[in-house]
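Project standup — Tuesday

K.O.: blocked on the structure for the chain from last sprint. Re-posting the sequence here as requested.
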Amino acid sequence: MMPTELSAVLPARHIQEECGVFGVYAPETTDVAPLAYYALYALQHRGQESAGIAVNDDGVFTAYRDVGLVNEVFPAERLRSLGTGTIAVGHVRYGTTGSDNKRNVQPILVNHYKGRMALAHNGNLTNSHALRQELESQGSIFQTTTDSEVIAYIIVQERLRAPSIEEAVSAAMDRIEGAYSLVISSPTKLIAVRDPHGFRPLCMGRLRDGGVVFASESCALDAIGARFERDILPGEIVVADKSGVKSDTRHCGKAPKRLCVFEFIYFARPDSVIDGSSVHVARQRAGAFLALEHPVQADIVIGVPDSGLDAALGYARQSGIPYGMGFIKNKYIGRTFIAPGQKNREDKVRIKLNVIRNSVAGKRVVLVDDSVVRGTTITRIIQLVRSAGATEVHVMSSAPAFTDACYYGVDVDTKENLIACQCGYDQDKIARKIGADSMGYLDVNTLHLIIGNHPGEGFCSACFGTGYPTPIPTGQKDRFEEKISTDIPEKESEESYDKFLRVE
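H.V.: unblocked you, prediction finished:
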């Protein structure tokens, strides 16, 4: 029989990713651009809107940035045109702040009288509005609508009065707030920075020739044959130059560690290790805890590719219910809901997945997904699994219920569109609304167990209703991307800020 098609009925999802960053420092002039290329390829899952690489050859920067996937932006000839150098900085983007047009592509390059700087950023600032107003009042002219340009300007401002780039970065950290993992190239140095809370991951590795690399995830190090050395500490500044590697920890310990737990549930690749915890193992543990928290009588456990597969395997092993392949995924279609443009996402999802009828026909099915946000997508998947002959469909989410907006780089829809909020956090009501026989979310109190932490230690789960680790932002964002007739007056901006934080 033909598989049942997951066609245009699947809408765009409203959980999106932020960005991936990479940097390499080589002891001698070499082809650093291909290293950045392959590392970004490994980080492509973190952003599909745009890609960019900047190569530093003895203080002369050559860069190319454009919208599209890494292989689209950098065909062989264009990659060669970047030339050789000792430093390269790379970036793949999903725009959590700022639109998806070309002007917001990174790395950001800034010229000033003390030199040049290339900066790649992963995360969201919570005080960018206030900082941007301050900079604009002093005469700064912004070319983008991103938080990243705010960071770049603050660092440059501090660099004009600081004795070194690392001192400028340290001074900037006293002013910027929120989530940021940065890779920065000065004319002679490569610098990696992680915010004091450690919201976003960042790690360091070594090449065989002694070169130093920094990346959002360890899978990027594997892709270029680098040896993982360690994670960058929350608040740490690491500098690589001709004298070696230096660490500045003066900002460490200023705030409690709050790594985004959704890195383990969805963001990161399963072959990555973040802050000592395996993503693959964490997802399997999530599935196992789901089986303990929400046991059901069923014949098969299937996962929604790709992020739900590890959790589905964990559920099957813990429950004793056989694991099976429920879907065939077109490997040539990326993560549809981080593809730029609504129409583009809808076109891609038409050909992304098929239900394997023989796996589910006549069976009671446990359907495991990484998250259930609005409920629209899972509703359509349930309908199609039932149309393929499933007699029961029990939905399990390896994430807790989303209840609040995120201000640190996870784009979560407004509360009125979150199905958990709509249904009063009642899982039976949610099940009825999405057409499932039962619905189970991972207990928010179980989160620490999947990554081996103590309760409330070391991670952020604010979007699951556990409270924000920083003051939430106020002020209007992205005003230059709003029509004048729809622009929000400054006096109303605080009350309406969540409108600018939602995923579009």
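K.O.: great, moving the ticket to review. Residues 479 and 487 are 7 Å apart (CA to CA). Residues 281-448 form a domain with the Rossmann fold fold (CATH 3.40.50.2020).
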